[in-house]
Design a protein that fits this description.
Blueprint: H1 23-30, H2 49-58, H3 64-69, H4 73-80, H5 84-108, H6 114-133, H7 138-166, H8 172-201, H9 205-224, H10 227-233, H11 261-292, H12 298-326, H13 328-345, H14 352-361, H15 371-379, H16 385-440
Helix pairs in contact: 2-8, 2-9, 5-7, 5-16, 6-7, 6-9, 7-10, 7-16, 8-12, 8-15, 11-13, 11-15, 11-16, 12-13, 12-14, 13-15, 13-16
Length: 448
């Protein structure tokens, strides 16, 4: 009698700690990517296409009046008989508001639904911009810009938190790149539009544009987004998707950001040098060099920077795509190295031709721009992303405030070469720390 053998299917190897769930995450592991998706399993894509594009488009709308007013500051000063000191107060009010609001704004997302907070911020921005139309003295203008700054800070924080938490591991880099690119495009168009309309209608048209933009943002969020995806993007329970206070769950403390480890620290360091370089040597030092040393006219410098920004938009989109393809954290050190290389090229400027060529190549350094914010989503669980984004924006503020001061000091003491050296030295130090962090944690990063 023939004995029938029982069939035993081959055993599957046990799941390892670094095996992320989902098709996209499995593909990431297969390719050896380091998106840290294994840390936080509930990191699938929560935003649909309409929500993503609505948030991307809405991000600059809450502060549009600030950009539209820039070409008209001179006419506003003359109309209201402001001194240069008073004009400085008006300009500084927006930045001061951002400095005050950025850290608290991130914590709001862990208590209330980001969609509700965002809509309130857009409404506040619209009302504040409308009040700016009727302002008649320096204190009213400064107060209006302070309110607009607070509202825009909260709105941008909510949008960043929503995009980072809701875009999902597989496409987060591309989503952040689109957000950065659209912000840059609007930054090219809005000042020109504000200056064009200020001719026939006066400087107050900037606040009209700001109010219209904020209303458009409010309606877009209301029509094209849902509270559920916003709540899940920050780890709130679906019960709180109706924008109610999440009082039952303890609020995370700031020290819990240590869970982000070396990835979070590297992202913050990269954020600092990106904004320090952009708002110091690039946006202020390079125009001064062209005007004072090489005799370029303002129109020529503006044309160069417009072309450079177009190159930067392409570099930003490429950085987001390659970050998703090869790993955002793995791309961070090469991207910072590219920023350093672009800064070192500035030492080659000797004449108008090298100024134009090197200036255009500076646009390539924007490759790094979408990586730090998207790495925050990889390094932190959903419930900590609000505070993580708050610290990210605070780091941006520190860079924005320190860059002009360092640039002015180095230009005064040693000229443009000293300013180049200071910026490149800071970038080199950050690159060295990022490389050291990567080597020390190599055995703990998933996918390696």
């Amino acid at each position: 009698m023939r004995r029938r053998l029982a069939y035993h299917p081959p055993e599957r190897p046990p799941a390892t700690f670094g095996s992320p769930p989902g098709k996209a995450a499995a593909r990431a592991t297969k390719l050896g990517l380091d998106h840290a998706s294994a840390r936080h399993t509930a990191d699938e894509e929560l935003l649909n296409g309409a929500e993503t594009w609505a948030l991307v488009i809405c991000q600059p709308l809450a502060q549009l009046s600030n950009q539209a007013l820039l070409p008209s500051l001179g006419s506003m000063r003359a109309d209201l008989s402001l001194s240069y000191v008073e004009l400085g107060w008006v300009v500084a009010a927006f930045g001061f508001a951002r400095l005050l609001a950025d850290l608290p704004a991130g914590g709001l997302a862990s208590r209330w639904n980001p969609r509700m907070v965002l809509m309130v911020a857009f409404a506040a921005s619209a009302i504040s911009s409308a009040l700016g139309v009727f302002a008649t003295n320096v204190w009213q203008i400064a107060g209006v810009r302070l309110l607009i700054g607070i509202a825009s800070s909260i709105a941008q924080a909510m949008i960043l938190i929503w995009l980072v938490g809701g875009s999902g591991t597989a496409v987060r880099g591309r989503v952040m790149a689109r957000s950065e690119a659209f912000f840059s495009v609007l930054g090219l168009v809005v000042p020109a539009l504000g200056g064009l309309l200020a001719g026939p209608f006066g400087w107050r048209v900037a606040f009209v544009l700001g109010a219209i933009a904020a209303v458009v943002g409010l309606l877009a969020v209301f029509a094209f987004t849902q509270g559920g995806s916003a709540a899940r993007a920050v780890g709130l329970d679906d019960r709180h998707a109706a924008s109610r206070l999440a009082s039952s769950a303890p609020q995370p403390g700031w020290l819990e950001l240590r869970q982000g480890g070396h990835m979070l620290l590297a992202a913050y360091l990269a954020t600092f040098v990106v904004f320090f370089s952009r708002n110091g040597l690039l946006n202020a030092g390079l125009p001064v060099l062209g005007a004072d040393k090489l005799g370029f006219q303002p129109f020529e410098i503006g044309l160069l920077f417009s072309t450079m920004n177009a190159v930067a938009i392409g570099a930003v989109l490429l950085g987001g795509r390659l970050g998703d393809r090869f790993g955002r954290y793995r791309m961070l050190a090469p991207a910072v190295a590219l920023l350093l290389a672009a800064q070192l090229l500035l030492f080659l400027i000797q004449d108008p031709l090298t100024y134009v060529i090197v200036g255009l190549l500076q646009g390539l350094s924007a490759f790094v721009n979408p990586l730090p914010a998207s790495i925050l989503g990889d390094a932190l669980p959903a419930r900590l992303r609000g505070q993580g984004i708050a610290v990210y924006r605070a780091v941006c503020d520190v860079a924005l405030l320190s860059a002009p001061a360092v640039l002015g000091l180095t230009l005064q003491l040693g000229g443009f070469a000293a300013a180049e050296f200071a910026t490149a030295a800071a970038t080199l130090a950050v690159l060295a720390v990022i490389l050291a962090l990567g080597r020390s944690a190599q055995t703990t990063v998933p996918g390696r």
